[in-house]
Amino acid sequence: MYRVLTCLTTEHDWRLVLLACAICFLASVVVISLFYRAQATQGRVRFTWLGLGSVTAGCGIWATHFIGMLAFDPGIGVGYDEVLTGLSLVIAIVISAIGLSVALCASFRWSAALGGAIAGAGIAAMHYTGMAALELPGQVIFAPGLVVASVTFGVLLTAAAFSVAKDRDDIRSALLAAILLMLAVVSLHFTGIGAAEIIPDPTRMVGAVLLSPQSLAYIIAGITATILGMSLVAALADRQSAGKVRRQKLLLDTALHNMSQGLCMFDADGRIVLFNAGFPGMLGLSAEALTGHSLLDIYKSRQALGYFTGDPEASFASVTAAARAGRSSRRITQGPNGRVMRVLEQPKAGGGWVATVEDITEISKAEAQISYMARHDPLTDLPNRRLFLEQMEQSLRRVKRGEQLAVLCLDLDHFKFVNDSLGHPTGDQLLMAVARRLRECVRECDTIARLGGDEFAIVQVGTRNQPIEATILANRIVDVLRAPYDLDGHQVVIGASVGISVAPSDSSDPDQLMRNADMALYRVKADGRGAYRFFEAEMDARAQARRSLELDLRSALMNGEFELYFQSIHDGGDEIIGFETLVRWHHPIRGTVPPTSFLQLAEETGVVVPLGEWVLRKACAEAAGWSRDVGVAVNVSPVQFRSPNLVPAVAAALSASGLRPGRLDIEITESALIQDKESTLTTLHALRNLGVKISIDEFGTGYSSLSYLRSFPFDKIKIDGSFVQDVGADDNSMAIVRAVGGLGKSLGIATNARGVETPEQLSWLRAEGCSEVQGTLFGLPGPAAGIETLLSKRNRRRVVA
Hints:
Elements: H1 2-10, H2 14-39, H3 43-71, E1 79-80, H4 82-105, H5 111-132, E2 134-135, E3 138-142, H6 144-167, H7 171-195, E4 196-200, H8 213-258, E5 262-266, E6 272-275, H9 278-282, H10 295-305, H11 312-324, E7 329-334, E8 340-347, E9 353-359, H12 361-375, H13 385-399, E10 404-413, H14 415-422, H15 424-441, E11 447-452, E12 455-463, H16 468-481, E13 485-487, E14 490-492, E15 495-503, H17 510-526, E16 532-534, H18 537-556, E17 562-570, E18 576-587, E19 591-593, H19 595-605, H20 608-624, E20 631-636, H21 638-641, H22 646-657, E21 664-669, H23 677-689, E22 693-699, H24 705-711, E23 716-719, H25 721-725, H26 731-747, E24 750-753, H27 759-767, E25 772-773, E26 782-783, H28 787-792
Parallel strand pairs: 15-16, 18-20, 20-21, 21-22, 22-23, 23-24, 24-25
Antiparallel strand pairs: 1-2, 3-4, 5-6, 5-9, 7-8, 8-9, 10-12, 10-15, 11-12, 13-14, 17-18, 17-26, 18-19
């Protein structure tokens, strides 16, 4: 090794030595970079990088050798054989290609070391071929030991460089591998130079060198550096591009494996190309069960686990056919643990499709809950009207097969009174208790529904024994629902009214069956409630007539068909002290419609509110024009009394007519007073503040008369005509009239007896102290045009009992 050091220090131009080392380091960096690029690719791209790496390695190593040779100055003229010099370059390229190929492409453990050793041997072959190309006046003799040492350095260091490069792809490893490769080339070259001993021989002649060694070295170095630089730029650019692609792939993989949906890509034959981490678990399979398999295999595996119930072959054929036709497919399937999965298969360009699997268990539960709530009553959990009609339509299909169906509509009797007196929470408890009892009355195949409020309905299906079965069920419902209810310490007793229609005898249309049952129910309530009734044909005719009357009633007010009649009110003698206002309807076709035919209908339809306001305005206007300062009484219905517009309507009527408020007497029936006591008293006090008088009409027929007499100072009590008619014939009626008269005297309230028809009734009422009387005994009610005639007869014929 001393010979090597002596050769370097005394026989070399250090400037060119350093240039050779620089070129060698640059070549090593480029080769390692190209090695990494080839390692990161496959197929043709890898061989492209291998080719470029081989050429770069060969040129770099050859340039290092040639510049190193130019740096060598043995003291005699030196030339180079062109053929051998060129052959050394070819050897460097070819053997480098072989070594790189082995290092990259072989799959055994020591492939990198073996490839490096081959490349090291190629460096040695290139070096000694280049040494053989020397032309000088003398002979070159090599020291065998140093030759072996140089080859060993080259082989081992190159093997180490390739092993480091293949093991890790980072800056430190790349720098270490480049340094090892540079040391391999440099140590082999300069040890090989030191191994050569030149024996002068004057007989050998060498051609003149046109350029100085320094100039030639710089030219070769420049050309080589350019080639290496371009290769390095290409490697770095590709590395940056590959790094960007790798980062994008990492992001894509991260997104793919962390998405909430499972994703799987299939080729045109239905085989799995790739899938994300969530896909196997959503189908209840393992990743091993999917790798290398097809969609048909997935179907069969899931069928074995009980998650797939269809025909695997048929399902697979359907999906592949849809993908080939460019159609998307969507289906719902079962997942593990009862989960619900939605699978969407979208065809992709070039064949195959992409399947996404989404867990929609919670969505399905929410949709089912929403659907359930949309079809059920939230309070009783019974079907609502919508679901009831749907199930009735389904049940009606059985009617076509000879079966019969009964529809039962029922209302709770006195529910409104319970709801208003005990409060809505208690009313809700009552409805839930009713629903429980109804469930116990029917079979599982029957349907119970709450239609709203206290209205329920039942469809009784699957029987050929109608109307017997419906009769049994209706009787049971009436009996069960009339039993007492214990609600938060309150014992409540109600009843039920039931209307029944039967298909197909009454109708096979759901809406018509409901209307028929409603008409039967209406008839039950009109007849006294607490019973059941089947639909009859005349009910429909009666309902049609009622509907026609309702339509006429709604237009009567606009057409001016109503007229006010007045009945005189007398004191204990014959003196007229006021008039009670009555309304008459003169229909252009029906003629005069009696109040008993339309007032109840007006109450039920709400027409009574605008009609009552018209009566108020008209009565006040008429009374304001009378010649005597007598009163005028106007009856206010319960519906009108609960209207928030009642007090403003009374005030407006008084203001518009100019009538003194004290002349107006508002008559209120007891039925208007039994609901919402606080609101009722508020309305009564508001009317009293206007200055009008307030009377209780039909006294004795309600529920809470005495309590209201104590709560509010009424001006008058009107005794119902039913008691007056029985005076003299019924001791009970006489006792009631006598008691009311005594109550009026004690409270200082005037009493008015209605329906006086005979002198005997009048005489008895006077004897009992009734302060006011009215009835047909004093004449029939008449229109406003006859009032002045009555008022002008001050000395009327006295009626004597």
